[in-house]
Write a structure and sequence with these properties.
The protein has 3 helices and no strands. It is mainly alpha-helical. Helix 1 packs antiparallel against helix 3.
């Protein structure tokens, strides 16, 4: 009877150990999947950082285009100033001509007024472009790979550190689970 009781106890312990080993294997498998997920997350962070670097290049291209628009608007302002000067001179000459130059004076005044409006519009464009350029410059600086101390890159680095710590912890836990499984079996 004692042997039967011992045998039943050993069978129960063996079943419990087998169940424990199976559970430990499941835990090890889950930890391995966590590690794989963490590695995939780290790779995603690397791809995101590269995408940010690519975006920074595009932003630089946009900044160059904005600079060209600003230069064109400044050229328009200069042309408007010159047109106003020519219109002013035409007005003076029309007044010298007296009654014969009266119609020409009206046209010269209209050209001068139009040139003034173009100048004001062009100055507004230059001002808007300068504000846009400042905003683009701040965005470009944020995207720059070297600005890893703050902003987007700091967040990515933080995610990378956390995911790396998760992967390392999962790896250690999987190793410990495997060790327990081997000892149980």
């Amino acid at each position: 009877g004692l042997l039967d009781d011992t045998h039943k106890t050993l069978q129960a312990q063996d079943a419990a150990l087998q169940s424990l080993a199976q559970s430990m294997q499941e835990v090890a498998g889950a930890q391995q999947r966590i590690g794989q997920g963490a590695q995939a997350s780290q790779q995603a962070v690397v791809r995101a950082v590269q995408a940010l670097a690519d975006l920074a290049g595009e932003v630089q291209g946009i900044a160059a285009s904005v600079k060209q628009v600003s230069e064109a608007a400044q050229d328009i302002t200069q042309v408007a100033l010159n047109t106003r000067l020519v219109a002013f001179n035409a007005t003076v000459e029309a007044k010298r001509a007296g009654e014969a130059g009266r119609g020409f004076a009206v046209v010269a005044d209209a050209v001068k007024d139009l040139a003034g409006k173009v100048e004001q519009a062009s100055k507004g464009i230059v001002s808007s472009v300068q504000q846009l350029d400042q905003r683009i410059e701040r965005f470009r600086a944020e995207l720059q790979v070297g600005s890893s101390q703050r902003g987007i890159h700091a967040a990515m680095a933080g995610i990378d550190r956390v995911v790396g710590a998760m992967a390392a912890a999962a790896s250690r836990a999987a190793s410990a689970s495997l060790t327990v499984c081997l000892r149980v079996l």
